[in-house]
Amino acid sequence: MVTKVNEKDISAKTKGGEVSSIPYGMIVWSTSIGTRPVIKDFMKQINQDNRCALATDEWLQVEGCDNIYML
Questions:
Q1: Coiled-coil segments, which residues (predicted)?
Q2: Which end of the chain, N or C, is more open, meaning fewer C-beta atoms within 10 Å of its C-beta?
């Protein structure tokens, strides 16, 4: 669960209570029951235009992209 976001990193807590810091260069925070236009446009650019959400691998890396992760 994300507990804090600042200009340099995201703090996330695991089910076990451990908190970790995840550094980032750019973050897009998108929560909704529908896919936001910016995410739909990105999905088209990476050929994921037939989905309701971005597809990721087991490490939450967006499929087809290097160094882009999704929580």
A1: none
A2: N
50/64 same-domain check: yes
Residue 17 belongs to what domain range?
1-26
Q: Is 54 exposed, middle or buried (0-12, 13-18, 19+ CB in 10 A)?
A: buried
Q: Are residues 49 and 66 in the same domain?
A: yes
Q: Assess whether 49 and 68 both reside in one domain.
A: yes
User: What is the chain's alpha carbon radius of gyration, rounded to the nearest angstrom?
Assistant: 13
Q: What is the pLDDT tens value at each position of the chain, 71 positions in all?
A: 889 999 999 999 988 999 999 899 888 776 777 788 888 889 999 998 777 788 888 888 999 898 888 87
CB-based contact 57:49 (threshold 8 Å):
no
pLDDT of residue 46: 92
Same domain, 37 and 59: yes
